[in-house]
Specification:
- This protein has two domains: about 150 residues, Fructose-1,6-Bisphosphatase, subunit A, domain 1 (Fructose-1,6-Bisphosphatase, Chain A, domain 1, 2-Layer Sandwich); about 110 residues, D-Maltodextrin-Binding Protein, domain 2 (3-Layer(aba) Sandwich).
- Helix content is about 40%, strand content about 25%.
- The chain is globular.
- The protein is of the alpha+beta class.
- Strands 3-4-5-6-7-8-9 form a seven-stranded mixed β-sheet, with helices on both faces. It has a five-stranded mixed β-sheet with strand order 11-10-12-14-13, sandwiched between helices.
- The protein has nine helices and 14 strands.
- α1 packs antiparallel against α2, α2 packs antiparallel against α3 and α7 packs parallel to α8.
Length: about 270
């Protein structure tokens, strides 16, 4: 049974099942494009001093939109390369798409990047997929349906001491303006945890929290397409997602803290 057939069988929600399959097919299509372009010379343009866009971002986004419009027409689309820098939270249903999360990694041949697609409705994620093409790992979730990796159910860790935890973070593109805050967070947490990772793709970090490879993740200045799918993935895997102070999360709020339920309040104490 292929992964899309599995999702059709596993998700019994008659409304969400076709949406989940549509997102999965679009993510796998984009992932094929990214694998084909990976390791080749790239056409790079700049959205900021260190914020890259490659031809792969554009090609993957075009393919995702075409696939979703074929499988699930009449749903609004918010995609990174066409949405603008500061999108507002839309009403109703909308696809929130990051065609290539980890563009800098991709451009440098660092093999950690992903496609992220979420179906949001009135500010809540109802279904999401994150696909890591080089690892061929398809993470999927839907509201009240759990989180899955390549047809196997996943869950967050049960680590309950900071010193036993492996956590991850990322750095904002305007690092010069936020350097003091970033370094203060690192000075605070690094001596208290087992170690910190910085892979450069928030969607992958959230997927890794959901499947237990990481115990927690935090980052500031993210966009909705970075976290819309991963937010639900972590929660459906038994984790907790908030802002740094422990308040209710929205992908349209620029900071995120995700962890298992035991570690989450401990990380809030350090970051809030």
């Amino acid at each position: 049974m292929n992964r899309l057939d599995f999702l059709k069988k596993q998700c019994s929600d008659s409304e969400l099942s076709p949406m989940l399959q549509a997102a999965g097919r679009a993510a796998l299509t984009a992932g094929f494009i990214l694998k084909e372009l990976y390791g080749r010379p790239h056409t790079i343009t700049m959205k900021g001093e260190i914020n890259l866009v490659t031809e792969a971002d554009v090609a993957a986004e075009t393919a995702i939109i075409a696939s979703l419009q074929e499988d699930a027409p009449n749903i609004a689309i918010m995609a990174e390369e066409s949405a603008g820098e500061n999108p507002e939270q839309p009403k109703g249903r909308v696809w929130v798409i990051d065609p290539l999360d980890g563009t800098t990694n991709f451009a440098h041949g660092f093999p950690i990047f992903a496609v992220s697609i979420a179906l949001m409705e009135n500010g809540s994620t109802m279904a999401g997929v994150i696909y890591c093409p080089l690892q061929d790992e398809l993470f999927c979730c839907w509201r009240d349906g759990g989180s899955w990796l390549n047809s196997k159910k996943i869950q967050v860790t049960d680590t309950d001491f900071l010193v036993q935890s492996l956590v991850a973070t990322g750095f904002p593109y305007d690092i010069h303006a936020k350097l003091d805050q970033v370094m203060e967070q690192m000075r605070t947490l690094l001596p208290k945890v087992r170690d910190i990772r910085r892979a450069g793709a928030a969607a992958v970090d959230l997927a890794y929290v959901a499947c237990g490879r990481l115990d927690g993740f935090w980052e500031m200045d993210l966009k909705p397409w970075d976290t819309a799918a991963g937010w639900l993935l972590v929660e459906e895997a038994g984790g907790k997602v908030t802002d740094f102070a422990g308040k209710a999360y929205s992908p349209f709020y620029p900071e995120i803290l995700a962890a298992n339920s035991a570690l989450h309040p401990l990380l809030c104490e350090q970051l809030g």
